[in-house]
From TrEMBL, chain A:
Name of this chain's protein: Rab proteins geranylgeranyltransferase
InterPro entries the UniProt entry points to: FAD/NAD-bd_sf, GDP_dissociation_inhibitor, Mrs6
Family membership: Belongs to the Rab GDI family.
One Gene Ontology molecular-function label: GDP-dissociation inhibitor activity
Database matches in Gene3D superfamilies: FAD/NAD(P)-binding domain (3.50.50.60), Guanine Nucleotide Dissociation Inhibitor, domain 1 (1.10.405.10), Guanine Nucleotide Dissociation Inhibitor, domain 2 (3.30.519.10)
Taxonomy, superkingdom: Eukaryota
GO cellular component, one term: Rab-protein geranylgeranyltransferase complex
Automatic annotation (TrEMBL), chain B:
One annotated GO molecular function: GTPase activity
Swiss-Prot/TrEMBL keywords: Nucleotide-binding
Pfam annotation, one family: Ras
Name the UniProt record assigns to this protein: Ras-domain-containing protein
Domain of life: Eukaryota
Keyword Protein transport annotated: no
InterPro entries membership: P-loop_NTPase, Small_GTP-bd, Small_GTPase
Lineage: Eukaryota, Fungi, Dikarya, Ascomycota, Pezizomycotina
Amino acid sequence: MESLHNTEWDVLIAGTGLPQSLLALALSRSGKRVLHVDKNDYYGGPQAVLSTQEAEAWVMNTNAGTSLFSDAALSIPTPNPSHGSPKLSFPRAYSLALAPQLIYTQSGLLSYLLSSKVYRQLEFLAMGSWWIYSPQALNLEAPSGSPPSPGQLIRIPATREDVAFSDTGIDLRSKRAVMKVLRFVMDYENQAEVWQPYSSKPLSDLLTHCLKLPSSLHSLFLALTLTLDKPQRTTTSYALPRIARHLRSMGRLGAGFSAVIPKWGGMSELTQVACRAGAVGGGVYVLGKGITTLSTEAESTSVLLGNHDTIRTKWIVGAPDDLGPCTGCPVSSSVAAEITSRSIAIVSSSLESLFPTTFEGSPKPAGAVVVFPVGSLGQSQHLQDNPVYLLVHSSDTGECPVGQSIIYGFCCGESQGLLESAIATLLTAVNEPSTPHILWSLQFKQHHPTDSNQATSQNFAEATQVLSFPPPSSDLVFDDSILDSVKSVWERITESDADRGDFLVFGERGALGEEYDEA
Amino acid sequence: MSDGATPLPKPSSSVKLVLLGEAAVGKAPNMTQSSLVMRFVNNDFQDNKEPTIGAAFLTQKCTLPTRTIKFEIWDTAGQERFASLAPMYYRNAQAALVVYDITKPASLIKAQHWVAELQRQASPGIVIALVGNKLDLVASAGSDGEEVEGEDARGVPAAQARSYAEEEGLLFFETSAKTGERVAEVFTAIAGAIPETQLKGPRGGQRVEERRVE
Ligand SMILES: Nc1nc2c(ncn2[C@@H]2O[C@H](COP(=O)(O)OP(=O)(O)O)[C@@H](O)[C@H]2O)c(=O)[nH]1
């Protein structure tokens, strides 16, 4: 293997998570000498994609070390003998995403993927319906003392037409109330006088007092915030922009969807494409080698990578997870970390009914969101005081074989039991001819410090600056603030380059041979 | 092939082709004129067009009697050097060119490693061509690449590589990127070997490029 010694690098990027990879892309035409390493032998760090076999190794590593993730456990139920139902396929048939985030169509990320020309190497699929689980029918007209009907999945209408014309299980009177809220949120900036007084109060207060929405329907709007927090903690000022983001993204890139997901395992694909752009631009890529130590002698700082390679560099950039030895503070010790319980389940059914095409001419959705509002999983022995979110991906995502699907579960706190009962409830509620079952599942916890969102920096001797990205949040949505922190790091590194151009805006490469001439 | 008059509409499909092989065997598009890809891409253009470093992939059409195939030629961008080739590199690749240097036996070993890697990571139907390059360095090679008796720089007998290729179901050629010998044939053969059923229009899926982001 070649050696990395004897090069004076401009930038050492540690870790191939999303912010680092986007930085590599941003620097790919800067002429800087970039060395991009990852302590793992795969791309993506906390946004990686795993085959079922790689997941086994990931579980062992996760439990052995201190990282953003902990308490990983696999469970593979003994195969159901019922004949004809799909079996677990070979390991590489699966691309399970550690970061199955959805990207709203108004996200700045999509514009940057276009302006940086890497979108040609990516495929995006539409997220389809948002479902909400209700243990009883949502009918306002139903007499309050009537016996509980079996639970059902209600499709959340996200446009006024949808509310008016779709059969979503919402009665007429409720539809009018929902319509009113939709109109309000679409225009909330101009109606500050209405919601300002509720700014730091729960969204529910606004919905009840100002918009007269019956409380049984609050969950429809809370679900659109995609927040893992309790409703009492979901303030109006936090929720309104998030609901508006959903509504306004609708139809932007095509009828019937508001968000997209990258094919082949979520954000991982993005990290790989961005890193490739870094390599095409001359960056050197080394997997399986992280920062071991940083030592400062006289004026200069040297970095030991793995066990053998000592290098010098002007900048070191990474996420806290990758910079441990530089900053001297492992992630786990950073103030109060919140925990999200997560799970990934391979299901023996395509769960077709969750992916209806709701608008004429809209692409076939490959993903769905299923929300279990607080209290909706009441029958289970676990008290449910946080909402549970399930992201369901069809085989169109390339994450599993045809005839199967993947369910990604999220819930705040120590909630593995709730995730399990949410999945079990979903599999019953979908009403498939033969009840789908779980072929394979992975549970784990994700830790995320509650403090800073900012990129931080530290000086080492004169010669080396260490910049740290914030650790990934547990948001279900791609967080545009990542773009801001990558941009600020890029600005600092390229500060003195007169011709650095605009962030992530690249001209066409004078391609050889044929031009890219796709119409 | 030029961007002049619109050609007669012929079914045209994009094919992703990935390049693999040891360093300096003569494959990569971004360094030298004497590389297989530069030969293929530039042959019918101005010969001294400056190679551009940093395109994500190069494209070149290959016209067969019945159809036109547009190769998207991807190189590893050096990511293979420290075993850091990403799965996305193999993704959807319908063809692979695995190149070795016929003067260097070690480069064939490396090529065999890449063939194994492709069989593990790429789609099952991928068309793989094994190409022994630098044929011009081998004195008095027969026109079909068969070696003749005598002392020359050849380190890998054609027969040895060919029988390996046959075993693994690979296309096999010996070429010279320097003289251009048999380079076009390699690409034409790959184009011809891609099953009709594998061909589709420009790659499918819900792609952002097809839409406008304001
Ligand atoms: N004699 C000869 N030299 C070649 C041929 N193909 C490539 N080379 C030379 O081999 C060297 C390595 O080529 P390069 O394209 O950089 O190899 P890569 O690392 O596989 O991309 C360069 O000096 C080329 O000029 C060939 O067919 N014959």
